[in-house]
Each structure stands twice: as C-alpha cells, then as structure tokens.
Amino acid sequence: MNTFTWLFLLMLFSGLLLEFWLLWRQARSVREHRNQVPVDFAQRISLQQHQKAANYTLANIRLEGVGLLSGVILVLLLTLGGGLNWLAGLWRPLAVAPLWQGVGLLLSVLALTTLADLPLSAWRTFVVEERFGFNRTTPRRFLIDQLMQLVLMLAITTPLVAAILWLMETAGNSWWLWAWLVWMSFTLFFAWAYPSVIAPLFNKFSPLQDLSLKERLEDLLLRCGFHSNGMFVMDGSKRSSHGNAYFSGFGKNKRIVFFDTLLHNLEADEIEAVLAHELGHFKRRHILKTMASMAVISLLGLALLNWLMHQDWFFEGLGASRHDHAMALALFLLVIPTFTTFFTPLFSALSRKHEFEADDYAAQQSSAAALISGLVKMYRDNAATLTPDPLYSAFHHSHPPAAVRISHLSTKLK
Questions:
Q1: Which of 23, 71, 133, 164 holds its CA 20 to 30 A away from the CA of 12?
Q2: What is the model's pLDDT at position 254?
Q3: Would the pLDDT of 383 be above 70?
Q4: Tell me: the pLDDT tens digits for 203-227?
Q5: What residues contact residue 197 under an 8 Å CB cut-off, 6+ apart?
Q6: pLDDT at residue 404, as a whole number
Q7: Given this model, what pLDDT does residue 249 score?
C-alpha cells in the first residue's frame, strides 16, 4: 500500500458515504410528502397514485443502496483484493499472443461486472417492477435478453479493446491520440447503427399506423425542418408498462420511436408535444454538444491514462502485480468512476438545462398545455415521485423535478 492506495480508499468510501447520505435525504423527502399530493398535481393525480409513486421510489432507493455497496465491494475485490491478478493469471498459461491475453483480461472484467449485476437486475424486474405492476417480461425472455446483451457486448468490444491495446503496444507515446480517434469512430458508428441494426435485436419496430396522428406529426416535422428515416412504434409493452419516446441515430439514419404504451396512454396533442420536446433536443444541438463534451472528456481521460501507465505507484497502489498495458487499462476503467463521482452534479445540471430548452422549443412549436398534460400522465403512469429531495435531484436527476418543470412550462401558456 502506498499514498495512492489511501487516496483511492478515501475517494471510494467518501463517495459511498455521500451517495448513502443523498439516498437517505431522498427517502426522507419522499416519506414526508407521501400523504399529500402537491397542490399543482392534486387535480390530476390521486392520493393513491401519489402514494404508489412514493412506495415505488422507496423500493428503488433500497435497491440502489444495495447496488452501491456491491459495486464498491467488487471494485475492492478486483483491485486491492487481487482479483485482476488472478484473472490475468488464468490467461497467462494459454498459448496466445500477449495482446490477446490482455484482451481476455479486459473482457473477463467486463463479463464479470455484468454478471455481478444480474441478481440485482433480476430482483428489480421480478420483485420491484412486478410488485408495482410494471413488469411484463418472463424469466425466459429475461434470460435470453441478458445472454444476448452479453454476447453482443463481447462481440462489439472485442475488436475495440484489441485495437486500443495494439495501439498502446505499437504507436508509441502518441497511442492515446490514435486510440481516441478509434473510440470516436466506434461511438459514431454505434450511434448510426443502433436504430436499424442493434435495437431490432431486442424489440419489434413497426411503422406508425395511425394515419391521422402520423399526418399531424409529419406536419410538426415539416415545421421544425426535421428529416427522419420514419416514425416507428416499439413493442415496449412486452417487457414493461413504462412509456417513453425518443429518436436515435444521425444523418439519414435518424429514427423516431414511440413506445406502444405511450401511444396508448396519451392523446394526439400530447404525443405531438412530447415529440416536439424531443425535436427540441435536436434543434438546439444538444446531442452534438453532448457528443462534443464526451469527446473532450474521453481525450483527457486517455491522456491521463497515458501518464498513469508509466507510474509504478499507480499499479502498486491498486494491488496490481503486473505493470502492462492491459492491466493499466483495466485498473483505469475500474477506478476512474471513483474519482469522477463528485463531478456528477455538473453533468446533471447541464442535462437539466437542455431539458428546459427542449421544453421551451416544444412550447413554441406545439402546445405548452398539451406538454404539461402529457408529462403529468407520464409521471403518473411511470410512478415518478413528485417530491424528490432538492439536493439528491441536483446531484442525480438528468431532468428537472416534476414541480419545477411544470411550473416552468406554465409560464409558457398562451
């Protein structure tokens, strides 16, 4: 153990304590307001529905706490507990090139962390979601989904990891610039391919059949100057009763998607307003801004890794017996979240700013009243809490609290 070990432990446990304190605040706020619907929602959400949302939030808080604790334990086992050394030792005797031993180590870590989350994911689906009437999947479909996700993840990441490790081995001190270009190319390709190649592996996407609604939405697209590869309905109801809408892809491969549950629960003007909000993200260039921010962050991260991989104290402080490129990358990916936890509020604040801007755009292009009505239905149907703790919300929520968002939209009513 060295100075970096103690710094790592300090950041790890201070971050854990912060997260548990925020969860405690969130639980306290939800409990204190459980027996009274906020005034702004009293006419549209019943006390029973409000209490269901409170109970659902509290159940998820308990699960999140377990997830936080298990995540810290796993990181400690893999680093100071010698887990990475053990995994590397399993690959070392195999008659494969060192590059592929490194790939094997990183894929093992990825698979292990994914499998470690499986019990919590199953509990969330078949206990929490089932208890509150949201789950519609079956154990068979759940297992198939998990297996497909694991296989797909390994198929996608294997060439990416191999390329980065090869660059670390052969490209000298500028490897991180080349790796950044590979990473950005991969990210752009994934964003382009996701709507038409990856998402259909898990869900069925059918063209929007409601002609009157389709015509109305096409008029909105024309007003907004948005061109897509079609509007599709996703069979989200086969797994969950939660509803949502989104668009993904870029260039000519942009696709607008509505969950079938959303179309079932919202009126035409509300669906139009929700779509206008999503288009607001596009028109205000939020996606491009987010991708640009992530590009800068990933570049800085790779530059930091390039420096750390030449520091013996980095390996020794995290319990690594091998000082090679694969071990450096594995350690970096495991511990970097520990040091970035305290930056979370900055990203959350930026995301909430984008949501306000998208709401403003929707109010201009459709109807603020319809968006309010649609959002309230979505809060109700998804059992979203109306009374989050302000500090927890500021730290974690990518969307403004319900009351704040509705109040902001109310100023746009004509």
A1: 164
A2: 73
A3: yes
A4: 888 888 888 998 899 899 888 888 7
A5: none
A6: 94
A7: 67
Q: What is the mean pLDDT of residues 75-84?
A: 94
- The structure tokens 């109305």 sit at 216
CA distance 90 to 242: 43
Domain spans of the chain, in order of start: 1-172+262-414
Which of 19, 129, 272, 359 is catalytic? The answer is 359
φ/ψ (deg, to 5) at 257: -130, 130
Mean local confidence (pLDDT), 387-407:
94
- For tokens 């990181």, name the residue: 75
Question: How many angstroms separate the CA atoms of 365 and 282, rounded?
Answer: 13
For the chain, give the secondary structure using H, E and C.
CCHHHHHHHHHHHHHHHHHHHHHHHHHHHHHHCCCCCCHHHCCCCCHHHHHHHHHHHHHHHHHHHHHHHHHHHHHHHHCCCCHHHHHHHHHCCCCCCHHHHHHHHHHHHHHHHHHHCHHHHHHHHHHHHHHCCCECCCHHHHHHHHHHHHHHHHHHHHHHHHHHHHHHHHCHHHHHHHHHHHHHHHHHHHHHHHHHHHHHHCCCEEECCCHHHHHHHHHHHHHHCCCCCCEEEECHHHCECCCCEEEECCHHHCEEEEEHHHHHHCCHHHHHHHHHHHHHHHHCCHHHHHHHHHHHHHHHHHHHHHHHCCCHHHHHHCCCCCCCHHHHHHHHHHHHHHHHHHHHHHHHHHHHHHHHHHHHHHHHHCCHHHHHHHHHHHHHHCCCCCCCCHHHHHHHCCCCCHHHHHHHHHCCCC
Can you give the pTM of this predicted structure? 0.89
Instruction: Give the Cβ contact number of residue 275 at 10 Å.
Output: 26
**Chain centroid offset of residue 138 CA:** 23
**The one catalytic residue among 278, 324, 355, 360:** 278
Q: Is the pLDDT at 301 greater than 90, yes or no?
A: yes
In 3D space, the residue among 152, 149, 126, 328 whose CA is nearest the CA of residue 239 turns out to be 126
Active site residue 357: no
Angstrom distance (rounded) from CA 68 to CA 324:
29
Location of structure tokens 């306000």: 356
What pLDDT is recorded for position 258?
Answer: 87
Annotated catalytic, 355?
no
Phi-psi sector, 133: left (phi>0), alpha (psi -120 to 50), beta: left
